[in-house]
Design brief:
About 35% of the residues lie in helices and about 25% in strands. The protein is built from 17 helices and 27 strands. The relative contact order is 0.10.
Length: about 550
């Protein structure tokens, strides 16, 4: 009889029972003179003691401004050193840091400000041709809770000076009154579907998740971690920053946003031992003209996460970038974020074909989406997560919380997964992404993995589009490698005779890129909208109405 698809991450290493501020203080005591944060684009370097002093100055300024425990303080900025200081300073005073997506436009910003009840907003002057200051002023009349904004580019030093009159005792008293179960962070879901919801996370959620990611990666104070992924997302601020500060490692961020050339230059110049990225970031580096001239000898480990990781890309990262101990993390914002992770010494097939076993102190199970019953191992179903990592809930949205977390505190991910006999999990797609073509279940991930084996394919995304005959038909968006020429007929011929006919895409779209969130997640719902509209327009052109 097959085992059920349930496993608990029993661990001899205990959960951390402290706040983020308490944990950072312990790291400073052990490693105060070691580098903590390097941001070459801002010519910024800080040791752990200097980082602690910077968070103290900002924490005192927040107290001076009347920020109380549980008040919401937002930051709207790409990666920069002030972001990291704000992350730890807000935690030390018990304010809830609201991560505002750097890609937001006015309507999305207004929603985040009002839904969270934000009192103070720290922001960059702008980013990628967006004038943040102008956008804030435009929406401010509609955001009654917002009391003050501080532009980091010209108001940072003045803000820190405001805290000078606040004594050490006042800050210590505030810190002493905090508990590790307090809400400390609101992260809005990426908006791939529907209105963004504010996943509310505690010290306990994110501190422990970052700590155990670092444990699995084998981090020590000797590690230097290249973090080109956004701080505003769990990947950057938890798997990145908190994994480092819980182990005394150095956070190295190449710039405000990901650029393959800057990332390659930074990891070489700073002798980074670990590199993070979503698959598209690794693909961009592998295909960049600077790649062959880059020294990867310092690298040993890293994380690929954020979206499904193609096996072929993983193999190239291990072999050509010297990241032999690369791991895959799987999770979601609502689980702080990681619930499974491959191990650095896993067999190669496990590291390229699965998202690993369960994380320490976490439970996972795979259930039949219809009945809710746990399926046997080897059977596909919905992945559910339970444990310390599950969010407190969606901010001020009890209905959405109840829809996501059941009465037994299982977080329903919406991801289709399969667990093998050793407890390793493979993600086979999203429940909503599964294509039903003429009664056949088609899993986009399977087709994408096959298309990656084509020598001229850099990336591929598969979606379902409406079909009068089959209900749904398979469509593929394909990004060629630089200099390569691809067309639908050649790709169809490549598939024919190798994968089942019903899985071969009926429609092909050759593209330079995909609609994506700022964190690198492909927006398949936008792809479906675009392809559906294009197919409808083509049909109308062929059969004009009289």
């Amino acid at each position: 009889m097959s085992l059920p698809s349930y496993v608990h991450g029993a661990s001899p290493v205990a959960l951390l029972g402290e706040t983020i501020g308490e944990n950072l203080r312990r790291t400073v005591e052990r490693h105060g003179d070691r580098e903590a944060l390097v941001v070459p684009s801002q010519d910024y370097r800080a040791t752990y003691r200097q980082l602690w002093d910077a968070t103290t100055a900002l924490a005192k300024a927040l107290l001076r401004r009347g920020i109380e425990r549980g008040d919401r303080v937002g930051i709207w900025a790409p990666n920069r050193f002030e972001w990291v200081v704000a992350q730890y300073a807000t935690a030390r005073v018990g304010a809830i840091l609201v991560n505002v997506n750097p890609a937001y436009q006015a309507r999305e910003l207004q929603h985040a400000l009002n839904q969270s009840g934000l009192r103070l907003l720290l922001l960059s002057q702008g980013f990628r041709e967006r004038d943040y200051v102008e956008i804030v002023e435009r929406v401010r009349p509609e955001c009654p809770a917002l009391e003050r904004t501080v532009v980091l580019d010209d108001g940072w030093e003045a803000l820190l000076e405001e805290g000078a009159p606040v004594g050490d005792g006042e800050l210590a008293a505030r810190e002493a009154g905090l508990t590790f179960d307090d809400p400390i962070n609101i992260q809005y879901t990426s908006g791939t579907t529907g209105t963004p919801k504010g996943a509310t996370l505690s010290h306990h959620n994110i501190l422990n998740n970052g700590f155990f990611c670092g444990e699995i990666l084998g981090y020590t104070e000797e590690d230097r971690v290249c973090i080109p992924v956004p701080f505003y997302h769990c990947f950057g601020m938890v798997i990145g920053n908190l994994a480092c500060t819980t182990h005394g490692a150095c956070m190295v961020t190449p710039g405000a946003a990901f650029r393959p050339d800057r990332t390659l230059a930074t990891l070489e110049a700073e002798r980074c031992t670990s590199l993070y990225g979503v698959p598209t970031m690794f693909i961009a580096q592998l295909d960049h003209p600077d790649f062959e001239g880059t020294d990867f000898s310092s690298l040993r480990t890293g994380v690929m996460a954020g979206s499904p990781c193609p096996a072929e890309v993983m193999k190239q990262v291990r072999e050509r970038m010297n990241i032999r101990e690369i791991t895959i993390c799987y999770g979601m914002t609502e689980t702080a974020p990681v619930s499974t992770q491959t191990r650095v010494d896993d067999p190669v097939d496990k590291r390229v074909n699965t998202v690993g076993p369960v994380h320490p102190h976490v439970e996972i199970r795979i259930v039949d989406p219809e009945s809710g019953r746990v399926v046997p191992r080897g059977v596909r179903g919905e992945l559910c997560t339970r444990g310390y990592c599950v969010m407190l809930g969606y901010w001020n949205d009890d209905d959405a919380t109840r829809a996501a977390i059941d009465d037994a505190r299982w977080m329903h991910t919406g991801d289709l997964a399969c667990m093998d006999d050793e407890g390793y999990v493979s993600i086979v797609g999203r429940i909503k992404d599964m294509i039903i073509r003429g009664g056949e279940n088609v899993y986009p991930r399977e087709i994408e993995e096959f298309l990656y084996t084509h020598p001229d394919v850099a990336d591929a995304q598969v979606i379902g589009v409406p079909s009068a005959r089959y209900g749904e038909e398979v469509a593929a968006w394909v990004m060629p490698r630089p200099g390569a020429a691809l067309d639908g007929d050649a790709l169809t011929a490549f598939c024919r005779g190798t994968i089942a006919t019903y899985k071969i895409p009926r429609h092909w779209k050759i593209v330079d890129g995909f609609p994506m969130t700022v964190t690198g997640k492909v927006q398949k719902y936008r792809m479906r909208e675009i392809s559906t509209a294009e197919l409808a327009a083509a049909a109308d052109a062929e059969n004009p109405r009289s």
